[in-house]
Amino acid sequence: MKQAVEESASLLLVDDDATFCRVLSTALTRRGFCVSIAHSVEEALPLAVDNPPEYAVVDMKMKGAPGLVLVKALHELDPNTRIVVLTGYASISTAVEAIKLGATQYLAKPANADEIVAAFSHQADGNVPLTTQPTNIENLEWEHIQRVMREHDHNISATARALNMHRRTLQRKLNKPPPGKVNTTF
To answer: How far apart are alpha carbons 145 and 159 in whole angstroms?
Structure first.
């Protein structure tokens, strides 16, 4: 399902995986985007300041500053920039944080070019329907672990200490897929 975009709409692609960037850049160029690539937030910021993009695809976790720093900066530069955040560490709390900082949509990796283009047209209005079912304990535990992991820059030992949990126990929990997911790629 290819969707048309404005002729040569500028798109900033930021991910530390060079192969992923090359493949996605080619696919997005075929869909009418003029793609600029950066492999870190630090590399992307000067590109965005010089020429704020109309669209951006930002990886959540990279070497250096996290992708949410760039999401916030891009939104401050131009609130009309359509930003899709990609992550291998999907959680509800990071999705909410990304949307609050200005992301248009939040996708779990792997995501293909068609999914990304479709996500650009998503309207993030903050009106998320509330469920009447309480969240189960496994999901709450997973979300809490993910939040503490982010606070400790994904350092397993520091996270285990903060959770008052043995490091091996934490590693076992992290090696299991998130509740409700069978085939999750991290």
So the answer is: 8
pTM value is: 0.65
Neighbours of 74 (CB within 10 A): 27
| Cβ pair 106, 87 in contact under 8 A | yes
Whether 85 and 103 have beta carbons less than 8 Å apart is answered as: yes
Domains of the chain (ranges plus CATH)?
Answer: 9-120 (3.40.50.2300), 137-175 (1.10.10.60)
The one-character DSSP state at 6 is S
SS3 170: helix
Instruction: Please write the tens of the pLDDT for every residue from 96-140.
Output: 888 888 899 988 877 889 999 998 887 544 444 433 444 567 767
Amino acid at 148: V
Report the alpha-carbon distance of residue 21 to residue 61 in Å, rounded. Answer: 14
Query: Strands 82-87 and 105-108: what pairing?
Result: parallel
Report the distance separating Cα 73 and Cα 90, nearest Å.
21
13 touches 36 (CB < 8 A): yes
The CA distances from residue 120 to 30, 65, 127, 133, 149, in Å, are 16, 24, 17, 30, 28
